[in-house]
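Hi L.,

You mentioned the student needs an example of a multi-chain input paired with its predicted structure. This one should do, with 567 residues in total across all chains.
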Amino acid sequence: MKWLIAQFWRRRISILVLLAMAGLWQILSTIYTAEAVPGEPMVPGWQIVFSRTLLSLSDYWRGGLNVPSVAEGAPQSYLAALLSILDHSVDTIVRLYVGLLMGAIVGTLLGMAVSWSRWTRRIVDLPVQFLRTLPLLAMVPMFQLWFGIDFVGKIAFVGYGVGVIFFAGVVNAVKNVPQIYIDNARTLGASRLQIYRTVVLPAIFPEMRGTILLSLGIGWAAVLGAEYLGAQSGLGYIIIYSEQFAYLDRMFVVALIFVFYASISYAIFDRLSRLLLRWTPQAGRVVAHG
Amino acid sequence: MARAAGGRDVIVASKLSRTFRRADKQTVTALDDVTFGIDPGQFVCLVGPSGCGKSTLLKLIAGLMLPSAGTLEVEGESVTQPGPERGMVFQQDSVFPWLRVIDNVEYGLKCRGVGRAERRRSAEFYLERVGLSHVARAWPRELSGGMLKRVAVATVFANGANVLLLDEPFGAVDYVTKRNLHDVLLALWTEAGSDERRTVVFVTHDVDEALILADRILVMHSGRIVDDLAVTAPRPRTTDGLMEPTMVRHKHVLLAHLGLEDAKGAAEAPAGARADP
Ligand SMILES: Nc1ncnc2c1ncn2[C@@H]1O[C@H](COP(=O)(O)OP(=O)(O)OP(=O)(O)O)[C@@H](O)[C@H]1O
Ligand SMILES: [Mg+2]
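Structure written out for the whole complex:
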């Protein structure tokens, strides 16, 4: 508890700014009262968001756990709303992270293949550079048709979006690995595979941090893009469904949920990478004291 | 050359050349038609002015680059790639910053599949010898430049190479520590292995360092070996020993080659102390 208070106190400025933003939103909602369709304000105020909107999310509850769904004739309830948020979130998050992981692994392997040998470079480099330039969102429908609208299609799409970013990041980062470390490993008797595992991988990680953060963002965008088309569940599905009825308030809530998840994943990654980067001279650096 | 390439030599270079093409399209000859042989167990110092090709020669022996012309054999085999039997301490920092000190020292052994307990024992032994036991668990960024060089030396010794290529390993170390490390290095050299001494090629700018350490000093200039001195003074050598007449004459010769004195001192050197140029 003391710790929590300390944390809040340490971030008091940032928290105040956040509260000010929320306040501005509220002011905007009272000044700008236009409606998308009758009864659906363009800028839903917090009083709507935390009552009607939250409750309305129970529309997406698919039933089960002895909590009847709206489709089965039950009235809207906060419990069903909460369950439906969790249910759809799990779907989206599983798609996101399975795709992210596969994209990261394949992208990294392909990126390393570019420097592995002259032959692997010839085989990999140009084709992947070509794939990289294909516009991501334009590929959504193709992926749906190739891989289906179910799980595989979505993780393939997320994996593709993340994979090409990892590829570019790895190719670039490997170029910047100081030759001296590779030479040192070679004279100590390391094989090529060992050099990649014990020298290249740790040496590129600091530079890959930016790539990984970027790919987290792209991953979220890609999983939503995939869910806009033909998904039967997931947060993206709620957004696209709401759009048909101009339920701006619901879209707004889902967007907030996204912000929440994204913040958590950034925070976790930050912790993790700080642990992995304890060795860097920059660990805990400040440019100037004060 | 004093030592013609005989069958017994552990390192044999013959008409060895290496040129670089710089980015400005100029061709640099870093090594120019170098021929020499080095006996097994010999401690050879390589001295010469900056840019004369010392590091290039070491990298060729290590197998990190290939000659432009000529041949180079180590232990009877043509050098085509690096191998753990030729250990190298680089002129620049080469300690992996992402591994703790002790893990750096163990690195080569781990790569070759030596068991955990055994490689830890070996790493601890050599860290202790270079006086760094107390920083075994530290990150390299927490060490000074001289300490990093000692880690590199310990790593190469722990790896058990037969041929040690040391490129100015103690250039960044203070005088007292340097003297202690000379003792450590010589002790490791003489007791190394059960069968035989290791062969050492040691690059330095420091004439006194060369005289204290070497059996033999190769002097380089502009990519060529211009002199080959046999240093026969008994060991252990002391700073007082450097005052002995033969040592003083060697020093004059070396300084003359480095351009610090005019060649008078060199001319006075007795023929016996020099090999034919
Ligand atoms: N990779 C390279 N590309 C181009 N030129 C190089 C390269 N490496 C070395 N040279 C050139 O070769 C020559 C010899 O370099 P080398 O590093 O062997 O000198 P050195 O004797 O070790 O000098 P120092 O005592 O300063 O370390 C220099 O003129 C240098 O410019
Ligand atoms: Mg050098």
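You could point out the following to them. The longest helix of chain B spans residues 175-191. Chain B has eight helices and ten strands.

Best wishes,
N.
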